[in-house]
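Take the subject:
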Amino acid sequence: MTSFWTGKRIRLRGIEPDDWTAFMRFAEDEERLGDLLNPPRSAEGHRAWAKEQAAAKSDGDCFQLAIEAADTGETVGSVGSFHADPRSGWFEYGITIGADHRRNGYAAEAVLLLLRFMFAERRFHRCQARIFAHNEASLALHRRLGFVEEGRLRDHVFFAGRHHDLVMMGMLAGEFAQLHPAGEL
């Protein structure tokens, strides 16, 4: 049996201290693509963050994982659950794929592995994602996976000198089970 965390193209794994260079590239990619602008972090800051992540304990519901290409072993992105309300049964997740690794199916496979874990193993009922309205590729990915647009927060985030809309998308556990039967990726 292969690992639960391994798909056809990727493997999800804990963040290692040596991943700092990949995460530094991802931060630069996001800035170039017009995502939220943050002050630059030093190489040492990225090293310290990766080391901290590698040693962090997971609470089971909120965690971040590295996405590794199965064929090369290269860190191509990250995925994780960032907010969770076990009482109400919902969680929110985020994903990033390095600019050089987009359009290879890595994001879709990583999201499906994460959702399968959160719905089947952690017994959450609902997943939600927040997507910048200008990020057409991410919106299209989520629609293909079965997420439904649940709302738009107008002028909700400010970056690149102006306000931008934020699209709220969601999927229920039953919808996921129907669209993505167990054992299928």
